[in-house]
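Dear colleagues,

As part of the handover before I leave the project, I'm documenting each prediction I ran so the next person doesn't have to rerun anything. This entry is a single chain, and its sequence is reproduced below.
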Amino acid sequence: MGKIIRNNKDLGEAIRLARKTMDLRQIDVAQKASVRQALVSELENGATTAKLGTVIRVLAALDMDLSTVPRRKVKFDPTEY
């Protein structure tokens, strides 16, 4: 089962967990995704404004997909993000 991602921090935690589970270094993921190691670090720390296509390449390097699901919470408060 996947993890619900609602912000950059959640995404970074999911990427880090997948990388460590696969026993990969950031540089290994970066090479597979054709990105800089610093970008992988930034993603993992939730501190990036990377393009969606770049994020998808990093996820693919970790054998992960991006999907969307309907939000379970009816009320949306954009200040929570």
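DSSP finds four helices and no strands in the chain. The mean pLDDT is 90.

All the best with the project,
I.
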